[in-house]
Records
---
Amino acid sequence: MKGLVRALALALIVSTLPATRSPSAETTGGGLWRDGQLAGRPVEARLEPTGQVLRGKTVACARCHGSEAEGGGEGGVRAPALVRRGARSPGLDEATLARALTFGIGLDGRRLHPAMPRYALESAAVDALLAELDRLARRSIEGVAPRRLRFATVWPAGPVRESLHALVERWRHLILVEGGIFHREVELLVLPNETTAALATLGRQPALALLLDDAPADLLAALRGRELPELFPLRPAYGREPGSVRRLGAPLAVEARLLLEALIDDLDGRGTIDIVAEPELVATLEPLLERHPALVRTSGPGVDALLLLRPPAGARARRIYAPVDLLARVGPALPAAAERIVVTDPRALPPGSPEPSPRARRLLGDPATAGPLLRHAGAALLVLETALRRLGRDVTRARLLAALDELGTVTTGLVPPWSARPGPEAGAAVIRIDRRTGERSIDPWRRPGEAPNAGRRLEDENRRSER
Ligand code: HEC
């Protein structure tokens, strides 16, 4: 024991935390773990029994224990994993960690192999390391591994799934040949369509997020119970959604507003209309409706126009106004009596949109010939990739969602400008279809409240946002 105390006394005192707690525990722990840095300076540690002093990266915990604390080691000595199944190793707390670091005593009380260096860290630094270990543990149950980021998906069967799958595979390949995103390759786990089987698979192989377009309703509900980020469902939502969903494209409220504007224009502001929608959505339309008192809201057959914003209850009308994706879903159930159908297309590109990037071309070939859904999916992957690259190595679900939100407005040249926080940039094109003659007229992409044909040029937009 005496020897040990002397060794400790001789042990070099490493840099201490600054008095002010300016760097957060998160960056302190991460810096120590990954880089052997503390408060911007290389940490020092001593090797037993020679007393050799090593600094910085050489004594960074990650070098031996692995970047995700999954265990590792060089030259036959194994540094154990310090996290297990989403938590730090049993018995690892402030006291036992401090004991291992200063005295080289293991969690089970035995003397550790001399390959584990001796550190002299203040308790704040030990706490920060524990916090970092907790973060790493969480990552491991969020589908993030040292060399891999796992995403999961459920796609409807058939050609849609095949083409989306092929696209994701191409994206994965592009990333792989570039050496990964911060050395991690992307994995896509295709879940079975059946709920119990899907949840079991996800339990065994946790995923960072879901790349989802469509899923059976009960499976979707079960997946949503797990609070996995749901990235870029490609079609608009027709009801309420959890906060972990990041949808690509204009929110339904924007389409609703554009459709109502078209309807008011077509009816010259007078007549009977029926609105089939969630009450929250109707509430967003109220101010516009109030400005047109000659427009009477009623329900039942024979109204002049029907504004359809969720799957219909068999209403009939001569004119129907609906998002194109909703009509595609409703399909044959669409009242045959309608003479005129007006749809919004949220995938139409605003005038002056930039050309698709070279990366978009590598992903999609000629984007002009790719269908709207593939263009949409391609844009979703590019947005996701941008967010992931911003995160660096420190990928967690929460940080991914935050990074998406922080991207601001993203222009891909494949879909209209996108922002995770729906902003004034959202819009759609309005298309009028005469069902008897088959004639179509298309108003170019615009935002709610803008006169038709007033689509602002994106360059102006970018210039304005730079100021
Ligand atoms: C140069 C390699 C190396 C570095 C750097 C290193 N360790 Fe270790 N560590 C080891 C080895 C090897 C063992 C296992 C020794 C044994 O089993 O006898 C170990 C054991 C441990 C243990 C005991 C685990 C148990 O189950 O008893 C803890 C805790 C630990 N290290 C934490 C850290 C922390 C925290 C850092 C960074 C501040 C760090 N280590 C840096 C090599 C290293």
---
Amino acid sequence: MSSVLRSKALRLVLPVVATVAIVAPLAWMWQASRVPAAYSVMEMGYLDYGNGPQRDRSVAGHSHHVSGYQAAPSRSITDLVVGPDRPADVRVDLVTRQQQLTVGGRSITGYTVNGTSPGPDIRATEGQLIEVHVRNESVAAGVTLHWHGLDVPNAMDGVAGVTQDAVPAGGQFTYRFVADQVGSFWYHSHQVSNPQVAGGLFGSLVVTPKSGIAQQFDVSAVAHTYSGVRTINGKAEDLRVPAQPGQLVRVRVTNTDNGPMQIWSNGSYRLLAVDGVDVHRPPEASGRSLTLTSGGRADLELKAPSDGSAARVQLSKAVAVIIGPTDANPAVPTQPTEELDLLTYGEPAPLGFDPASATRRFDYLIGRRPGFVRGRPGMWWSINGHIYPNVPMFVVREGDVALVHIENHGGEVHPMHLHGHHMVVLARNGVAATGSPWWVDSLNVAANESYDVAFLADNPGIWMDHCHNLKHAAQGMVAHLMYEGLDTPYRIAGAADNRPE
Ligand SMILES: [Cu+2]
């Protein structure tokens, strides 16, 4: 072959080689991002033992998939229930429907529980067994109910495709759990949760102590934005509490939206509890705005002013809780620029475990990178550098003390929600917490912030550990925490069309 011909041939071949070199990895990435018609969360991504013990070291070398792990005897999460012989103390029947809602005079396509959104308040006393019977009348995509913040037995956690199959229209499911925790919680669908929660498929759940509460009024204020309309308890208007001068009011605020909410008042307040856990010795706070993260709850105590005027608590700029005479109309207070910082609020108290004795150390590093998710190209959320479904499965053993280092390089705020456990904040941006133990199930991690949190692995199961901006979750910001030796018979997608996000 002459050198002219050779160079001609090269000129033809090189672009082809270059194209293949570019396209082949892309095609592989595209292929790898597609998920099977039905798959177990146990087969997603890779195992992360957090430098802790591994059950079977011979598996660790090739632990990209969990299948080798499952070769060891395992127990199904379906066993993780409250004993069926124990009778219920509180029985609730719920019916879910897809229907038009009227909010602020506008008709909105949404979802109801027993005909309303929010659904009924579920109330129980500490230690009672709650039994909730759900019948899905008309939600075509199916429903589940997740008990946000209640660390229920795993099989009752209500995550479609992980702890149960979605309940199809015409189907039913019974949840049973003991209300061992006192405080403010909420329930919401965890099937196609982004549109279903945005559309109203949720309600409040409150567990009061046996001894009762100190306040004369106990008010749930479920904040939600329906198609751009800000509401409290489903109404686009202020919530009025007719307290007499000097009377105390407990306002249980739940943020059911995807983004954080600001809370502030025209006087002082005490923050009694966060995410269903009491703050230890909370002082009066004034001139401070409180950030309530997506999915989070804040119990505020307010006193009706002794001069007969009204206290006003803004839940965002749009709506407020007004405490005092029913005809009072206090002005909207200016939002304070200073924040109530839970890193220093209240006084220290024992945690019940020692973070210094940690047996697992995990990273949860949030970023963004280009790639494919479910066959679609884009800039996607990443967890420890990986994008869905190649995300970490954090592995613990019962009794482990786990530390999690969270860093947000994702450019947006991420409300991180761990199911089945409460995490205590040890530090933010490297600065140690010095106030009351700051327990959360939903943590507002702003852009460029880092948090160090710890939890005790005391509730066996397979638990979601995800962003509660449910849009982000649907974009793949989902990982799981599993206890070794467990397995689930449920599948994402599959015949039940389980889509937890
Ligand atoms: Cu997020």
